[in-house]
Structures are given as C-alpha cells and as structure tokens.
C-alpha cells in the first residue's frame, strides 16, 4: 500500500485493527507486507493491541476479538434476533434433560427459549437461574420448582451477578448446567464480554455434574474478551441448523462433542 512507510505508529495500529475486523485473522507476514515495517515492529504492535484487549495474538499472527469489555447487547436488543435458530437449540437442549433433575439455566435469550420449551414440555424438575426473564417464564409452570438466585441486578441484562449470587449458587449441585456464551473457539475456549458474567458461568460449571453450552452458529469460532472455560471443559455444545458441517466435523475430529438442532 502506497505511503504506509510514512505512517505514524498509531495509524499503523489502526490499520491493523481495520484489517483484522475485515479478515478476522492475519499473519505477521501479511502485516509486514501491508505496513512495510519489520516483523519485530509488527509483533510489538500486536502485543500492545492485545494488552488493550483489541485483538488476540495467535501463533504467527493475530485474531479479531468480536466484542470488548462491556459491549454486550441488552436483552431487549437481542430478544428477537435469530429466533428460529434459538428455538431449534432449545428443543435439542430439553431433549437432553430428565424428569426430577436439578438444572442451572443461564442468562440470555437462548436460555429464555429453553425456558419456553421446558414450559411446553411440562417436565417436572428444579430449575435454578440468575436470569429474570427465565425465572418469570418458568414460574408459569405447575410442575417446575424455580429458584431465582439473588445478587446485584444488572438492569440492562435482567440478571443477577456478583459475590452474593455466586455464594447462593454454591448451595446447589446441578445435574446439568445449560450455559450460554458469546464466543466458542477450539483454540481460545469459551468466552463472554463481561468479566463478572464470566465469573458466574465458571461458578455454575463448577457446581454441575454435566455441562452443556448453548450457542447459535454465529458464535462459533468467535472470541470475546473474557474466557470462562476451555472447550474441553464442557461435556457438549449445542448449536442451530445453520452451523457449518465442515466446522462441526473439525470440532469432532478434535474430540469436541457438538450437535445441531433441527
């Protein structure tokens, strides 16, 4: 690119981020050619940008982070998005559950759809949640026992978080924990934008005999700011019918159990 050799350092770093946002992954060789600087300089830029949580370093390059700290959409903004896909995940997830279990149902719109499916199926069980909409949905049932965990209410996301919520959660053991995520990556693990949300998800996984991550296909091979589990730390990943068969095959070759709904 003409003129890149005369760029200031900040302009080069901005160009790195613009390129990453478009391509999602870049190599040091590509950036060296683009910026017309040495590999040592590129590595220094990548290290600085990683420290600012703007990208993730990979072997020989970098990867785009799709969401930074505090950039989660509100529940209202997410509620209507990809609804058929989330309903397909919900049907598959409920098939995994048995009567009389104690489950943890995480926060988020996919988990609200799982709550709707549980309501429809009328499976008697105990459901523990920190999500207000999940609890309000489940409380309509006459066969479900619903536990709403207390804590600090995050108004925009309609869930409880914080030390009080985790302390209360630790009183329970779950047969199954259904956990939502904003990013699932074979290399970088399972992630969410907000550190406090990640802490809650880690606590739920710790209390569960079996863990299932529920994500629509747009979250696969994405990375957000805060990792809460390695991909092999969970028992299964459930996604929607639009997930790439090629990507699912790659996961399965690595010993990752992943299925998609219909």
From TrEMBL:
The keyword Nuclease does not apply. PROSITE patterns: HTH_DEOR_2. One of its GO terms (molecular function) is DNA-binding transcription factor activity. Residues 9-64 form the HTH deoR-type domain. This is DeoR family fructose operon transcriptional repressor. The keyword Ribonucleoprotein does not apply. Pfam families: DeoRC, HTH_DeoR.
């Amino acid at each position: 690119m003409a003129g890149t050799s005369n760029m200031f350092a900040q302009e080069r770093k901005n160009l790195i981020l613009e390129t990453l946002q478009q391509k999602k992954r870049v190599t040091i060789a590509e950036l060296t050619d683009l910026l017309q600087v040495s590999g040592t300089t590129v590595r220094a830029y990548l290290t600085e940008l990683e420290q600012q949580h703007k990208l993730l370093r990979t072997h020989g390059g970098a990867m785009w982070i799709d969401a930074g700290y505090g950039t989660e959409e509100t529940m209202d903004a997410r509620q209507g998005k990809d609804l058929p896909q989330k309903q397909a995940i919900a049907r598959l997830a409920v098939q995994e559950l048995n009567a009389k279990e104690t489950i943890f149902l995480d926060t988020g719109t996919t988990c609200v759809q799982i709550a709707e499916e549980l309501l429809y199926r009328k499976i008697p069980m105990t459901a523990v949640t920190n999500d207000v909409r999940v609890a309000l949905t489940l409380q309509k049932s006459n066969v479900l026992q619903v536990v709403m965990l207390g804590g600090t209410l995050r108004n925009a996301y309609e869930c409880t978080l914080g030390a009080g919520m985790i302390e209360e959660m630790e009183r329970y053991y779950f047969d199954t924990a259904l956990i939502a995520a904003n990013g699932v990556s074979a290399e970088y693990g399972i992630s969410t934008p907000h550190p406090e949300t990640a802490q809650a998800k880690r606590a739920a996984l710790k209390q569960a005999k079996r863990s299932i991550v529920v994500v629509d296909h747009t979250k696969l091979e994405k990375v957000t700011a805060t990792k809460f589990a390695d991909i092999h730390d969970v028992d299964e990943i459930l996604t929607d019918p639009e997930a790439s068969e090629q990507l699912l095959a790659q996961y399965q070759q690595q010993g990752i159990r992943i299925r998609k709904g219909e």
